[in-house]
Design a protein that fits this description.
single chain, 797 residues, mainly beta, 22-stranded antiparallel β-barrel, six-stranded mixed sheet, 47 strands, 4% helix, globular, disordered N terminus
Length: 797
């Protein structure tokens, strides 16, 4: 590999000696970059074209010219007067900032309405453009993600998966720190008008945190360049057995030429119910547990996000970010349990849970553009803090076979946990040539986790602390990372693109329970290489190959060895011996404007899975443990096509298999299981008269294995309708699962313990939203251009 890189640098360096390098940055009169403007070099004597290029998203360009006689450079873009350079002879140079002036003879606004490709491949990621695509029109972000290649969205379980594994969600490159449920609620409030694009990074390179197993989805939102205020109000209503509703407000404020403020606020009140029945059969001694549970939850989510940006100059920018999130919830359960054994006991349990989650985050980003070729420096500092509190009351009544009360158990508990996370990062990017790029960076992260649980039993009318289950567990962790990434295009004149990277991460963790003198120490260093090779083909298609290594660190709460009782006979316990897992990922892909094909294989060592163990004749316990070997392999295909001006079709299907192998030294049965499954989504959208758009879609989830457990199949239909009432007012209506088929079933594959669990999340629903867009300010003439080429925190939730 060392010889390969040296050879690449030598070959491309030779080309530079023979050529003249002209570079610069193109902006408008407001110092805003003009992306995709045309840059051409022509001979003076006959105006013959020598070479041409276009500017990137930041307006930058670099043009290598090998000319034998005088030439000049022209830069042009629709709506602006062309810029023409003086004549050049032999020496390349930096042309600096080039300002294009508006053409007064053009229209007040120019719209370029070329069809925008929904999906394109860009480097090591797939870019999903939104624009005016009929498939994304009027939808919220959760619905839009269903059209993303290789992505699978299950709103009932709050899961967003890539290649069959849970994905990391970023908003503008940053983690949200929310629980899966709160994150899904937040994504439901973002509409396509707030979004610029979505990046799907199924096999992340060394430039990203090594944390994760299922890849990264980065949501990029829009900003406003118009002086004044613009924004939207979006109100949502959901009825699914119970009623939920919410409102969001987005404001983009261009205060001065250099200062802007982007704000996002939302309030959401949710009420939902889950019905569950579960049968657990123990073979020796023969005992059957039959559970019926009704779980009702009310929650209120509040979020405020502010981004303040100041441009010191066109090349220096600082962004201050502040976000505060607040959640209150009230949960109640009614549990009925029948135990069929020698005594035939029946139990009724009541459980009440009041909880609160408060979190806030503050960040400073500084971006420094060093030159017009793309050399830049970025520094990031983030501080995140959260506090979770929970108060619980339990009442269990036990009856004999004649329904006579034989015993009762009343207890209560309170839990308080907090997280403080500090991270700082520096990234440096240096283009070696216009075809080569070097990136290096470093990151430091520190996490302080504290949890305090108190359990009390009611004895003779007085609550007495239960020392067996009360505990205070503290855990802190530091991660130091260094990375380097080198990219080259058109190597060996074969249009082959290469990106290679290395990342090293050192992890040091310490935990303790003072009451029991329990201590926990985690210290390890790992290297995570990555390699990406791609080749453009005809008709804007490409093929690619990638390989990488990643780590998946356990959630902090899973280390806590305290026992938590789900019922008087079933408990959960943490595992201080839980270790991180490692994934070696291999991927082959083909991408075109309409078709995306991916083949992949993940070899995982030490994946954590929840294991059910029989502790005694009458007691069962769940605990997360490391599985020795997991293999995930599959193929994913997505296809979208605009059949007519009013009819668009989309289909995606993936087949993947999972294989688990593990042996245990205690009473747990060894695991050796494998199963393949298929997931399919088909959607067709129509433009109707009166600016109405409708869509009908179908989604199928096949049975799947999770090591010791398997899930059953389910499917659902969706009907969507959107209507633009005025230029500012529109509404969106969705009918989810009208035939009520989105049910969930889980079974245990052990021989000694057999489990059958059925769950109804009442997914059949009616969703309605109405949106109002507004703007007030000094509009400037501009070009609206539909472009055709446009870790620690998750573990705390």
């Amino acid at each position: 590999m060392k010889n390969l890189i040296i050879g690449l640098i030598f070959l491309l360096g030779t080309q530079i000696i023979l050529s003249q390098n002209f570079k610069g940055r193109v902006v408008n009169s407001l110092n805003k970059p003009i992306a995709y403007s045309n840059v051409t070099a022509q001979y003076v004597d006959n105006n013959a074209l020598i070479k041409g290029t276009i500017t990137d998203d930041e307006g930058r360009f670099s043009l290598l010219i090998n000319a034998e006689k005088p030439f000049y450079i022209t830069i042009s873009f629709i709506g602006y007067k062309a810029w023409v350079s003086p004549n050049f002879y032999t020496t390349g140079q930096n042309l600096g900032i080039i300002i294009l002036k508006e053409d007064k003879t053009e229209l007040e606004e120019v719209f370029v309405t070329a069809n925008k490709e929904l999906i394109i491949r860009k480097g090591d990621k797939i870019l999903m453009n939104l624009g005016s695509n009929i498939l994304t029109k009027g939808k919220n972000l959760t619905e839009i993600l269903k059209y993303a290649p290789n992505v699978w969205v299950d709103q009932s379980s709050n899961e967003i998966n890539l290649k069959g594994v849970s994905a990391i969600i970023l908003i503008n490159g940053k983690k949200t720190n929310m629980s899966r449920e709160s994150l899904m609620n937040y994504l439901n409030t973002l509409s396509e008008k707030e979004l610029k694009s979505i990046e799907i990074i199924s096999n992340p390179s060394a430039r990203y945190d090594a944390e994760g197993q299922g890849g990264i989805i980065n949501i990029i939102t829009k900003t406003s360049n118009t002086k004044g205020v613009s924004g939207s109000v979006n109100s949502m209503l959901n009825f699914s057995k119970l009623l939920s509703y919410g409102t969001s407000l987005q404001l983009n404020s261009k205060i001065t030429k250099k200062l802007s403020l982007n704000s996002y606020l939302y309030y959401q009140q949710n009420e939902y119910r889950t019905d569950e029945n579960r049968v657990e059969t123990i073979s020796l001694p023969k005992t059957i547990y039959e559970y019926e549970k009704i779980d009702s939850t009310k929650s209120i989510d509040r979020l405020a996000n502010f981004d303040l940006q100041y441009d010191f100059s066109d090349n220096d920018q600082v962004i201050l970010q502040y976000r505060i999130f607040d959640k209150d919830f009230n949960r109640s359960q009614n549990n009925d349990l029948i135990i069929t054994d020698d005594q035939a006991i029946q139990s009724n349990g009541l459980y009440a849970n009041l909880g609160k989650n408060n979190s806030s985050a503050f960040g400073i980003n500084y971006n420094k553009t060093i030159d017009s070729l793309g050399q830049n420096l970025k520094t990031i500092f983030d501080y995140y803090t959260s506090e979770n509190s929970s108060d619980n009351d339990y009442l269990n009544l036990f009856f004999d076979s004649n329904t006579a009360l034989i015993n009762s158990n009343t207890r209560r508990s309170s839990a308080l946990s907090s997280f403080n996370i500090i991270s700082s990062q520096i990234d440096y990017q240096k283009p070696i040539t216009n075809k080569q790029n070097l990136e290096v960076g470093a990151k430091y992260g520190y996490v302080k986790s504290q949890s305090n649980s108190i359990f009390e039993n009611l004895i003779n009318g007085i609550y007495i602390r239960d020392e067996n289950f009360s505990n205070k567990f503290d855990y802190d962790e530091q991660i130091i990372a260094l990375y380097s990434s080198f990219a080259a295009e058109n190597i060996f004149d074969s249009k082959l693109n290469l990106q290679i990277g290395f990342r090293g991460e050192y992890t040091k963790g310490n935990g303790e329970i003072l009451a029991t003198e329990f201590t926990l120490n985690k210290n390890y260093f790992d290297v995570f290489p990555s390699l990406f090779i791609s080749k453009p083909l005809k008709d804007k298609s490409s093929i690619g190959f990638s390989i990488s290594r990643r780590i998946n660190r356990p959630n902090y709460r899973l280390f806590n060895p305290t026992i938590f009782y789900l019922t008087d006979f079933t408990s959960q316990v943490g595992n201080p011996d839980l270790n991180p897992s490692y994934t070696n990922a291999l991927e082959l892909n083909y991408n075109s404007s309409n078709l995306n094909l991916q083949l992949y294989f993940n070899d995982i060592k030490g994946e954590p899975r929840e294991i059910l163990t029989q502790l005694s004749d009458t007691e069962l316990q769940y605990q997360w443990r490391n599985i020795e070997k997991t293999s995930i392999y599959g193929i994913s295909l997505s296809y979208n096509r605009k059949l007519t001006n009013w009819w668009t079709f989309f289909a995606s299907s993936s087949w993947y298999g999972k294989k688990y192998i593990s042996t245990f030294e205690d009473a747990v049965e060894n695991i050796e299981t494998s199963k393949g499954t298929i997931q399919t989504r088909i959607a067709t959208a129509f433009k109707l008269p009166s600016q109405i758009t409708t869509e009908i879609s179908f989604q199928y989830n096949g049975p799947e294995t999770y090591g010791q457990f398997e899930s059953g199949e389910n499917y659902a239909f969706y009907i969507d309708l959107s209507k633009k009432i005025t230029n500012s007012l529109s509404f969106y209506l969705q009918i989810v699962d009208p035939f009520d088929r989105l049910r969930y079933q889980f079974t245990n594959t052990q021989q000694r313990i057999q489990t059958i669990q059925n769950r109804n999340n009442f997914s059949r629903a009616l969703n309605f939203s109405i949106r109002y867009d507004f703007s007030k300010g000094n509009k400037t003439k501009n070009v609206k251009y539909n472009r055709s080429s446009q870790n620690a925190k998750n573990r705390s939730t």
